[in-house]
From TrEMBL, chain A:
Source species, domain of life: Bacteria
Keyword Cell division annotated: no
Protein name: Putative spermidine/putrescine transport system substrate-binding protein
GO cellular component: outer membrane-bounded periplasmic space
Pfam families (UniProt xref): SBP_bac_8
GO biological process terms held by the UniProt record: thiamine transport
Any GO MF annotation of the entry: thiamine binding
SUPFAM superfamilies according to UniProt: Periplasmic binding protein-like II
PROSITE patterns linked: TAT
From TrEMBL, chain B:
Organism classification: Bacteria, Pseudomonadati, Pseudomonadota, Alphaproteobacteria, Hyphomicrobiales
UniProt protein name: Putative spermidine/putrescine transport system permease protein
ABC transmembrane type-1 domain mapped to chain residues: 56-262
Native source organism of the sequence: Faunimonas pinastri
Lineage top rank: taxon: Bacteria
Main location: membrane
Gene3D superfamilies per record: MetI-like (1.10.3720.10)
Subcellular location, record wording: Cell membrane
Length: 354, 271
């Protein structure tokens, strides 16, 4: 009741203001109707090379085949989900790129459509586990591994496992950079992955917090992936927990001093899920089918250096040694992690504090 | 009489749509319990849990520290700008606002290049001058966060003080000196009190901007935990929008309190 009142109040007030200030109420309504008639959809992408890859590998073939138009909205999954939550009856986005935990939130909230082979023929080529991991309301189409990235100039003999990583950083042999708690997937790629590697798991993350306490004098934190690269290139850190694909992108851009290894315990799989909001333009199905296409995914992987999930994809010789098969990663129990994530974040704030 | 009211209508409607209404929505969200009822639990937690009290305290202390340092650095610069710079005043102002002309990301990266463990400063001290043997740990310290914030916010203090200093009647200072006061006493008992309003305005500006600063803190870290960082975390990591709303309301209350202080200062001067 309160929620409805607040939303009604907010919606009416905002509409009133915007209509006066920009004339946007009528224009906005008309343009949305126009999208539906001309099958113009809005899809999502992260910025930088990701955006270019999305345009080249998915938007271009979609537009060529359907003669519909796909606009690309840049941002991040938390923002996109909030946009759909704010207006589920008329979502402003037709295709969502999500982290699996947010994809699960969207699925549980009933905000997204079921993925079936009827609507998406290419879904048949995606391993069932990857679709089941988001309750069948989306699927994982791309993934990276959170492993150990290091500077070859300062780390000639890198730690081969998370356990060795903790021991050698604790002893002061290296300064390590790990993601800060403000980074959305830190609970998965660091807390869960390291806890599991050190003998814990979802129900017991004490080993992780003990390890962080041991390493604290030799740790720095990165808030965004580019921070990590800056820290490594400026010499602030020698190594750290980072993604394989981004590491190879830096390498290909000329930072040939950088290297990556998947720790013996298996780095966490960081999947990227794709979903369609309920009430989104049905033309989005054709776009989603392009995302799941083997040829398009192979091209996407070649640009981003990340693994993709269509089983027909054949990686190039350059990519083969770089991509870790998803079966050799630690597959996170996203649903269980989602239940305890806030407790972990609170504990991090109190014990680690940055 | 009607025409001036019409002139402010677009701005008023803009503020209504994009500031007042979202602000009310934000406030109401902080009281929702998720089941359609109302709750004060978030505010109780924020105001009683020692962790959150420490975060609020750290937010206020950081802003206050940055304000005091900006005033200490800014006053002499403003004095030089108004009284000594002469034809160079335009150049000094350019130097002052130059940091604001570059992206905050680039400025922050600049600090990283300078003070990294193997950055320019440590390389100079270790390899070139041989003054130290182990690199100084400067990055990711509260001191560097404060330095970075002061670097950006000093211009606000200088410009606020100099605009008031420019209006100080020099005859009052001359009268004090004719009555036997030395330069220091003249400054302390005449000039400085007359510029308190500029310091007050600059302090409010600097305090409020520092209070809501986010990018510098998230990039330079420093182990500081402030409300803006936790608000971002509630949105990005935990998706607890109600808690984020409550935190932002408290941040707003701190800002409003500062505005009230400024108004009090101005009224006192007017009286």
């Amino acid at each position: 009741m309160t929620n409805l009142t607040r939303r009604t109040f907010l919606g009416a007030g905002t509409a009133l203001g915007t209509s006066f200030v920009t004339g946007g109420l009528i224009t906005g309504g008309l343009s949305r109707t126009a999208y539906a008639q001309s099958a113009e959809i809005t899809v999502t992408a992260f910025g930088g090379v990701w955006e270019k890859a999305v345009r080249d590998c998915f938007v271009a073939p979609f537009e060529a085949k359907t003669h519909d138009k796909a606009n690309v909205s840049l941002g991040d999954p938390a923002q996109w989900l909030a946009q759909v939550e704010a207006n589920p009856a008329r979502p402003p986005l037709d295709v969502l790129i999500m982290t699996p935990d947010l994809a699960l939130s969207a699925a549980k909230a009933g905000l997204v459509d079921d993925f079936t082979v009827d609507k998406l023929p290419n879904l048949a080529k995606i391993p069932k586990e990857l679709t089941d991991s988001v309750m069948g309301k989306g699927t994982i189409f791309d993934y990276g591994v959170g492993g150990i990235t290091y500077n070859k100039k300062t780390v000639s003999n890198p730690p081969k496992s998370f356990a060795e990583f903790v021991d050698r950083v604790s002893s002061g042999e290296f300064v390590a950079s790990v993601p800060s708690i403000s980074y959305a997937v830190t609970p998965i790629m660091l807390i869960w992955a390291m806890a599991k590697a050190l003998g814990g798991g979802v129900d017991n993350v004490d080993p992780f917090f003990k390890a962080m306490a041991k390493m604290k004098d030799n740790l720095v934190f990165w808030g965004s992936p580019n921070d990590f690269f800056n820290q490594l290139s400026s010499g602030e850190a020698d190594l750290g927990v980072y993604f394989d694909g981004r590491t190879w992108n830096h390498y290909d851009s000329g930072a040939t001093w950088i290297d990556f290894l998947n720790p013996e315990e298996g780095g966490a799989l960081n999947g990227v899920a794709v979903q369609k909001p309920k009430n989104a333009n049905p033309a989005a199905w054709a776009y989603l089918n392009e995302i799941l296409d083997a040829g398009n995914q192979a091209k996407f992987a070649e640009i981003l250096n990340y693994g993709v999930t269509n089983t027909d994809v054949v990686y190039s010789d350059k990519l083969k040694p770089r991509v870790t098969p998803w079966q050799k990663t630690s597959f996170p129990p996203y649903e269980q992690i989602a239940k305890v994530r806030n407790e972990w974040v609170d504990r991090w704030n109190r014990e680690i504090g940055r | 009489m009607k025409r001036p009211a019409l002139l402010v209508l677009p701005a008023a409607l803009f503020l209504l749509a994009f500031f007042v209404i979202p602000l009310i929505d934000n406030g109401m969200r902080s009281f929702e319990d998720g089941d359609g009822g109302l709750t004060l639990s978030r505010y109780v937690q924020l105001m009683t849990d020692r962790f959150y009290l420490r975060v609020i305290g750290e937010t206020v202390l950081l802003s206050a520290g940055v304000t005091v340092i900006s005033a200490l650095i800014g006053y002499p610069v403003a004095y030089f700008l108004v009284r000594k710079a002469g034809k160079w005043s335009g150049f000094v102002i350019f130097l002052l606002i130059a940091p604001l002309m570059t992206s905050i990301i680039m400025r922050t990266f600049g600090w990283q290049v300078l003070f990294a463990r193997k950055g320019l400063v440590n390389n100079l001290l270790i390899d070139q001058l041989g003054l130290i043997t182990r690199p100084l740990r400067v990055l990711n310290t509260p001191e560097l966060v404060i330095a970075a914030l002061v670097h950006v916010l000093v211009p606000f203090m200088v410009l606020s003080i100099s605009s008031v200093l420019q209006g100080v009647d020099r005859r009052l200072e001359e009268s004090a000196q004719m009555l036997g006061a030395g330069p220091f006493r003249t400054f302390w008992e005449v000039t400085f009190p007359l510029t308190l309003d500029g310091i007050g305005t600059g302090a409010i500006l600097v305090f409020m901007i520092a209070n809501g600063s986010f990018v510098t803190l998230i990039l330079l870290g420093g182990g500081l935990q402030t409300l803006p960082l936790l608000i971002y975390q509630q949105f990005n990591t935990t998706r607890d929008f109600g808690m984020a709303s409550a935190m932002s309301t408290i941040l707003l209350v701190i800002a409003v309190f500062c505005l009230w202080l400024q108004l009090r200062l101005v009224r006192r001067r007017g009286a």
